[in-house]
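Methods, example record. To illustrate the input and output format used throughout this study, we show the complete record for SusC/RagA family TonB-linked outer membrane protein. The sequence lines were provided to the predictor; the line carrying structure tokens was produced by it.
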Amino acid sequence: MKNLIFSFLALLLLPAYMSGQVQAIKGKVVDSSGLGLPGANVIAVESKTSTVTDFDGNFTINAKAGEILKISMIGLETASIPATNTPMTVTLKEAADTVLKEVVVIGYGTAKKRDLTGSIVKVEGKQVADKPNANPVSSIQGKVAGLSVVNTGKPGEDPDVRIRGTVSRYQTKPLYVVDGILNDNISFINPNDIESMEVLKDPSSLAIFGVRGANGVIIITTKKAKSGVTTVNLSSSIGIKTIPNKPSMTNASQFKMLYDEQRVNEGASPYAYYDKFSANTNWVNIIENNSANQFIHNISISNGTEKNKFYLGAGYHAEEGLIENEKFKKFTFNINDEVQITDGIKVGIGFNGYDARMPQLHDFISSLNATPIVAPYNSEFGLYNQLPIEIGGAQIGNPLANVEGKKYTQLNRDSRYVGNVFAEFKLFSGLKFRAAYLADLGYSKGRGYTPVFNIYVGETGETTLYAGNALTNVNQFKSDTQKTQQDYLFTYEKSFGNHNLTALAGYTRYQEGYESVSGTVKQYVNGDPIPYDKRWWYLNTYPFGDPTTRLSNSDQWDRATVSYLGRVLYNYDGKYILNASFRRDGSSEISEANRFQNFWSVGAAWDVTKEKFMENQTIFDQLKVKGSYGILGNQYSGVHYPSQPNYTTGSSAVFGESLVPAYVLAYRNNPNLEWETVTSYEAGFELSTLKNRLKFETTYYNKTTDNLLTFVDLGSEKFYTNAGEISNKGFEFSGSWNDKINDDFTYSVSGNLATLKNKVKSVYIDGFEVFDGPSILTAGAPIGSFYGYKVEGVYQSYADIIASAPSTLGNYAPGDLKFKDVNGDGQITTDDRTIIGNPSPDFTYGFSGNITYKNFSFSIDFQGVYGNEIYRDWGNGSTFAKFNYRTARLDRWNGAGTSNWEPRLNDGSGYNKLNSTYMIEDGSYLRLRNIQLGYNFDAQLLKRINIQGLRVYVNAQNLVTWANNSGFTPEAGGTPTSFGRDTGGYPIPTIMTLGLNVTF
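The corresponding predicted structure is encoded as:
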């Protein structure tokens, strides 16, 4: 009887006992339709344990019965419910306006997207983390309307990035903001450490950056720990890089046929040394690294409590170039720690470190130009072969000798240390103060060696020095960059009934400086060569270096900016939204008269769906009309301190027996210079429909650069002045469809398209033009337009020549290009040069699709441009040297009616080498940018071995490109005034990757 009573009491007390003990709490998370939600976060607040739901929405978590479980998932409302002893079901409701409730990072703070009037696109870090690119911006090519990313295949080089066109002569890159610090590049960031990237395009969001805002802004936020979660993540991938498209060049027999024909056309006899050169060499294949490897390894540790959130990430990226002996290695680490000292005081630090061994880069242009009849190596004499003396030998070194004979002779290293320290204080309800000190310290150094070796000359049977270099020499350089920033910001947030206000006021100071030294030294003329050993590659390479040959140089500058800024975000009942911002920048670099300049913007939006007359409609889940206007700034110029010219060497004078050099100003001083300003406005709308499954956004933008900072060179007089105007305008469209068929199957599709019309309205005075190779800056044409003659065909006979307008450009004959008489004066002169191509595309676009089925995921991305031209600045037509031929030259003119485009083989007069549409190619292309297949292992199975998640995937990048150009790639970046020129140098690789991601 006593045992029975004890048993009965135990049963009564068991629930109370269990509620105080940690146990396995089980449950399922579902959506409003009852379907299980995979990947939802479940956190036990008191026990500080966490888990994620499996693919059926089920979860098991160690917690106490009765304690609060916080369950969340992106796009759904967070639920907080007590844990129960019995299996529980939790329903997460859809957020009525998911996009509008999304929090985005803006200048000097964050805001809900619903409270903004501008165009800000948020890219989640996971979209770049598993892509095989060292620079994270490369991975969002085609993802954001209005963002142009032109990649380069060279390891360690940054892409050409432009937002909504080219606004200036001197700078195209956007401003990067990494955890608050302003920067000009993000090469030091590990893509795996990125939480999000925000692309800011409109005046409403850019004016707060003042004199740096004209080119757009990309804000990078690195990962931070989340409360109640402790995770260790490992990711690793290996990849193989290959060349997808190789230019079509003639083989040995084709070359001999064309070259002999060319010699005859030029009045010479056929080439007499073919018995010495009987090879059939594909030089691209010879120097190509046809199995270039890539390795990416990352580890991160994250631990978060209510008081302290700590994140540590480290990464290693190593890849080989597409040419032999190119090796790039990058080490990165990231630390973020935030400590909540009291309810009103929070402090934190952030640190990004980067150390890279930069590759010794080459290019493929010499391998395209080199004649195929030469063998790379002469095994009989153990020497590399020189190219034939009459066929490029004086202009082109043996490509293999350049790659192998000088391999690993340039040792360069870059290091960056970027950090911030901040303290945040809640002064009273709604008001907080944040003080931050940020710094970026960059260090670059390198040393190199030029060896001396002989090569074999086939025509004479003798040897000669490679590249004519008789003395070994050493080069050495070092440069340091320091950037420091101080921010002091007050933020006030308050709601008054239906009125919601966020106000920002602050002061910031930014200072940067640069110093560099470099030098070279040669060996003694009759002394021993400097050893081919990196231990001796220093300027004081005693006893080999000749001190009398030592040359040195240095460069240095610094500048500072102080700024006062303010912003107001206001909305009434979420319906009527107003944004206004102001910044006053004072710069040490501009003239004293205009040292301080003001920049501002105002934007408004109307959420139509919140009106009463929209309450009963079922079409729109959200409809928001928006617009903004503002004045932005551009502080970049061709030189630092343009209003304070340096001195340069002028005429010399004789005083007695001494010759004394005179020094004059490099250009005339203009004390009234000011920074360029960009007047920008946009208007558009955002909508969601069909239960937020379909989302669409469109925007019209217009940007006009005023007071263009122009360097005027009139020969006898040179100076900077503010004169000129550039216009960029267009439309942007983006849309997406997201749907869930059932628990096992979800899919989404998205796309974007952006048009661009760029036009230089004026440059200094009427008729003033600036030339940069085949490119021109002139009023009435897009910036960087190609300039030359329009080709109407090929002269077929002397009768054709007589019947055509006579040319004053040089000697020509049947088979030469026929240029158009553009101005109609009856003759072909230099006045007939005109715009022959536009390097800016009419529009850029991208579209993608994603599918998840059970544990499998599949994604595919396309990206392209349309309507631009590229200038083929390589191959026949670009040089007087005797180089290999493009196979297109097999269709050359060799008699009346044989060709009306490819001219005869004759370089004697140079007539066909004038800049013309003969060198213009279509730059439009469509690329299968990325395709990925992944598999997530079953969560229940992984729990048995204490693993939260395990994913494997295969990825292919740049798998196929549909294009019409003759070079490696239709992508070609460059400077603001000279871009879109295909120099034939380096391809964009196809990268096949196998990856693994494990979370503990």
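Annotations derived from this record:
The radius of gyration is 33 Å.
The longest strand covers residues 473-496.
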